[in-house]
Write a structure and sequence with these properties.
The complex is a heterodimer of chains A (about 240) and B (about 280). By secondary structure, chain A is of the alpha/beta class. Chain A has helices at about 5-15, 30-40, 70-80, 115-125, 150-155, 195-200, 220-230; strands spanning about 25-30, 50, 55-60, 60-65, 80-85, 90, 95, 100, 110, 125-130, 165-170, 175, 185-190. Chain A is about 25% helix and about 20% strand. In chain A, the strands form four sheets. In chain A, strands 1-5-10-11-12-13 form a six-stranded mixed sheet, sandwiched between helices. In chain A, strands 2-3-4 form a three-stranded antiparallel sheet, with no helix packed on it. A two-stranded antiparallel ribbon of chain A has the order 6-7. By secondary structure, chain B is α/β, with parallel strands linked by helices. Chain B is about 30% helix and about 20% strand. Chain B is built from eleven helices and eleven strands. Chain B starts with 7 loop residues before the first helix and ends with a helix. Classes of the chains: A alpha/beta (about 240), B alpha/beta (about 280).
Chain lengths: ~240, ~280
């Protein structure tokens, strides 16, 4: 098995977000999180429930359920879900913006809208995939708080914040989390070939840096075979990173 | 039983400027586009449009029919950002009530149940409460005392949805994978109008799918329209998929006022029959 490419490292890093989640809905937006959820279920998280991207749930042998949008919203409210979505902006406490850039009243760039991000982040674990780690994404303050971060959750206090968890942020350079004393974003690992300085320079706020930053784990041979031969034989993943 | 079949002109004739209308479907999927096109061609103004937004929003905003959009997103799915809506927002040309997708669901449900609001956790801590300063929270009167968002009812004057099949009395059937929120839109509205790919007799409706595919009951419906290919260019599976090539042409018409004028002249100036000939 030839060495893993950067995007293959990213897929495995995203898959790790769902480790230990058990029998819940693993929702994903975008190709890399979708491949990651499929990889997780094929390997270390076999109980995950996956959508077909429309209203169906797919098991190993085909359809295993029906989950139209109204039921997805219902499952989100039960907490039996961990979603990995995108972020146009993210700040140090994990506040996420996908609504618009600039003033909300008249934005310079209208984006998607808040979508389900407020409900996701208040109801169940949420992670983010950022295909290009830059200071444009990792900003001091997001323009619109769609997915709520740890400072907002703390201000809300219990019991309202009891289901809030931002598990992980995976980028083309690194894996980040919020396992720090003040719940500020922490550099958890750097991908092979990426330096800590490079990640710090691409981040628009001070990151929490442990004394030793490990390297993101490399995909196993089995994981690489699954990605290359079964999950993405056409190699669509190679067009997904920022550069 | 009443025969509720009517024309597109009669359905759109029910609208008045300033009304709040709801549009079924989701993103660029099973949208009642024949009705949307007719509204775009009308002289109506200042509409408030409630929708899980797709090209219905873009087209009506570009045509100048809309004062306010109530939504959680506006997307063409395969083209993530709706270009006409983007343009209008960036020009400050349309007002927006931006809600979490679950809040929109809850607002329609409250309206359908004739409740003033329903409590929901979604929105707490987010800027949805900042950008919608009229929203209030409510404290549980029980021992938990939890504070929740009091999502107000999104009561509609009129709802429009598109189904695969319907009968002349207004029973409507969806044959695709997802009902979206179409029944809820009808129940949240004072008057509801359903368009369909094909009008069939009740026997064919029953044999066309399982009982649970009969999403819309005639007691929810005031008018029925047969608009073949009427969701075009959005998807209406299993009758047809999204017309991706045409959707790209539509998206490119947001590039400039001139591009929009060309698109409108070619596809929207005349009636639905003309549109269907132009895109076939």
């Amino acid at each position: 098995m030839t060495g893993a490419s950067r995007v293959e490292v990213c897929i495995v890093a995203c898959a790790e977000a769902w480790r230990g989640d058990g029998e819940i809905l693993a929702s994903s937006i975008g190709l890399i999180p979708r491949l990651a959820a499929q990889l997780a279920r094929r390997t270390f998280a076999p109980d995950l429930v996956l959508s077909d991207g429309e209203a169906g749930l797919v098991g190993d042998d085909g359809a295993e359920g029906w989950l139209p949008y109204r039921a997805v919203l219902g499952i989100a409210a039960t907490g039996r879900r961990h979603m990995m979505m995108g972020a146009s902006q993210l700040d140090r406490y994990g506040n996420q913006n996908i609504s618009c850039i600039g003033s909300w009243a008249q934005p310079t760039t209208q984006l998607l809208g808040v979508r389900g991000a407020p409900g996701n982040t208040i109801n169940h674990p949420t992670s983010y995939w950022v295909p290009r780690h830059t200071r444009r994404v990792f900003v001091e303050r997001v323009d619109v708080v769609c997915g709520i971060g740890y400072d907002r959750a703390a201000a809300l206090g219990p019991p309202g914040n009891r289901f809030h968890e931002i598990r992980m942020v995976v980028t083309d350079k690194a894996v980040l989390d919020f396992q720090s004393p003040d719940r500020g974003m922490r550099l958890r690992s750097v991908h092979p070939g990426v330096s800590v300085d490079e990640v710090v320079a691409a981040t628009g706020f001070p990151l929490q840096l442990p004394d030793h930053v490990p390297e993101t784990r490399s995909p196993s041979d089995r994981e690489l075979r699954l990605i290359r031969d079964q999950l993405d034989p056409a190699g669509l993943r190679d067009h997904e990173l920022g550069r | 039983m009443a025969d509720k079949v009517m024309s597109i002109a009669e359905a759109v004739g029910e609208l008045r400027s300033g009304m709040t209308i709801g549009i079924g479907g989701w993103g660029s999927r099973r949208k009642p586009m024949a009705l949307v096109r007719a509204i775009a061609r009308s002289a109506l103004t200042d509409l408030t449009v409630v929708s899980y937004g797709g090209p219905d929003i873009g087209l009506l905003v570009a045509a100048g029919r809309v004062r306010r959009v109530v939504t959680g997103f506006v997307s063409l799915d395969s083209i993530p950002l709706e270009p006409h809506f983007r343009r209008a927002r960036q020009l400050g040309a349309v007002e927006l009530t931006e809600l979490d997708e679950g809040m929109l669901h809850w607002g329609l449900l409250a309206a359908a149940r004739r409740l003033p609001y329903l409590p929901i956790r979604a929105g707490l801590g987010s800027d949805v409460l900042r950008i919608n300063p009229e929203l209030r929270t409510v404290r549980s009167p029980y021992s938990d005392g939890e504070e929740l968002v009091a999502m107000p009812a999104l009561t509609l004057d009129v709802a429009f949805v598109h189904l695969n099949r319907a009968d002349r009395q207004g029973n409507g059937q969806y044959l695709g994978p997802d009902p979206y929120f179409d029944d809820l839109f009808c129940l949240a509205a004072a008057r509801s109008f359903i368009s369909c790919e094909r009008l069939v007799d009740p026997a064919e409706l029953r044999s066309g799918g399982p009982a649970q595919s009969l999403l819309i009951s005639r007691m929810m419906v005031n008018g029925v329209l047969e608009t073949p290919h009427g969701a075009h260019f959005t998807s209406c599976v299993p009758d047809y998929d999204r017309d991706e090539a045409f959707q790209r042409e539509y998206a490119e018409s947001a590039a400039s006022p001139q591009a929009w004028d060309r698109f409108r002249a070619r596809y929207l100036e005349a009636d639905e029959a003309h549109y269907q000939r132009a895109v076939s």
